[in-house]
Hints:
single chain, mainly alpha
Amino acid sequence: MKYTYKHTLHACYTGLITQAVINNLAPLLFTVFQSEFGLSFEQVGRLILFNFGTQIAADIFAVKYVDIIGFRRSAVAAHLLCAVGLIALSILPNVLPSPYVGLMLAVMIYAVGGGLLEVLVSPIVDSLPGEEKESAMSLLHSFYCWGQVGVVLVTTLMIQLIGRQLWAVLPVLWAIIPLYNLLRFLKVPLMPPVPQETRVPLKNLFKSRFFVLALIIMMCAGASELTMSQWSSLFAERGLHVSKVLGDLLGPCLFAVFMGIGRTIYGVWGSKINLSNALLGCGVLCVACYVVTVLAPYPLLSLLACALCGFSVSLMWPGTFSLTAQKHPTGGTAMFGMLAVFGDLGASAGPWVAGLISDLSQKSAVVIAVGQRNGLDLAQLGLKCGLLVATAFPLVLFVSVLFFKRDKISV
């Protein structure tokens, strides 16, 4: 069989599906971890922090060494680490003296693979022959969303069929995807990286006002997206008191569907859409979705706002990638790597901050009084406080994009 660049593109699509698996499987099991291992909100939030914190370290490594190691070897190693980490997630918590240490080790292993994938896939697609790079980038990132939909649907269904006590089967089954894609990356054709002599040095990128602003936008994009997607399952079950199945389907699953729709729309009609204006609209809608999710008087309305939040964040991550690539077309892997570093900074800090605020607010006399007055238990009210604080992330993104447009920042 003769492999073409079309097969390379499809392998990149599957690479982002793999990333969706490692980022979204554990949060769907948070309530299982809490009941089986006795974890607090801050501890499960720390798993998210550790996941993306490790991805940041992998991103930084990739910025310096991927062009030396090569795209192919790096991609194969990334998929192998994802598979090993997923398998470890099902084994280590049950064999180590501390289940939480087992969870952390497993997360660390697959997070290294996820971090490498994050840096690799976008520049590989950007390097492929073809026009309308912005649309191609958005379409690529839509596969992360469809992967997230699949993870939520299949995982929720499997938990219902086999029971929570057999949750350890699920990570092993999901490990099949990175193992399969590892074999594909051994064979598909790859374009060479941007030559060293034509690549913009990182120190020059950091002298660009636009690039610094893009890093801030990227950090807020990661925080806005991941805070809602990572906490929505637990928020639905503990904060809104709906069943896990209904909460997962109307919360993180619909969130991913709307996010995928937004990215697919831009992937198809991106050339007709002003990306900066679209990002401004996304920021406003995201703030509104967070507020309604927390303050809506009806659980169904909260879940629908949570789902619509997926549409609001859909262009933030790939849109920032595309804007930066337009300004710095020879930025190379290092440029995409630094954007990924700041995206992961937001993706790790945002959910962790929400978890921390959730725990701290439950000790506040004011919050306790509000809960007693409105008939809300502390866990429910704490989760609402955590998500409400997270509205700061899309607000900063909106202001940053507005600053870019009004000042007409150039390279």
